């Protein structure tokens, strides 16, 4: 456990040790969620590049979807 002090206007500095463990770097965005009394969750928000890398190759390509749509339309006619 690492302590951090709440400053003016509610600012909190996340200690370097905890930032490194959470892989939070300067310029990153974080999501802040208040839970029950006294609990705040800070979660790193993934960048667009991180999301794209995570789903790369897992979604069908447009040309595959377009072909399926054409087949379905032809079947209906």
Highlighted features:
single chain, 77 residues, alpha+beta, Pemi-like Protein 1, Chain: D, two-stranded antiparallel ribbon
Total tally of structural domains? 1
Structural category is alpha+beta
Range of strand content: 5-15%
Weakly predicted, low-confidence segments: none
Report the top-level CATH class: Mainly Beta
Q: Major sheet: order of its strands?
A: 1-2
Write down the Rg: 22 Å
The total of helices stands at 3
Order of helices and strands: HEEHH
Q: What CATH architecture do you see?
A: Ribbon
| Main sheet makeup | 2 strands, antiparallel
CATH topology: Pemi-like Protein 1, Chain: D
Instruction: Kindly state the number of beta strands.
Output: 2
* Apparent shape: elongated
Describe this protein's structure:
It is a single chain. By secondary structure, this protein is an alpha+beta fold. The protein has one domain: Ribbon (Pemi-like Protein 1, Chain: D), CATH 2.10.260. The protein is 39% helix and 13% strand. Strands 1-2 form a two-stranded antiparallel ribbon. A hairpin with a 5-residue loop joins β1 (30-34) and β2. The model has no long low-confidence stretch (mean pLDDT 86).
């Amino acid at each position: 456990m690492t302590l951090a002090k709440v400053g003016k206007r509610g600012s909190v500095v996340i200690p370097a040790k905890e930032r490194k463990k959470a892989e939070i770097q300067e310029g990153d965005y974080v999501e802040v969620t208040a839970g029950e009394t006294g609990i705040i969750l800070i979660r790193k928000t993934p960048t667009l590049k991180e999301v794209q890398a995570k789903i790369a190759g897992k979604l069908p390509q447009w040309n595959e979807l377009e072909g399926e749509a054409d087949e379905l339309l032809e079947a209906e006619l």
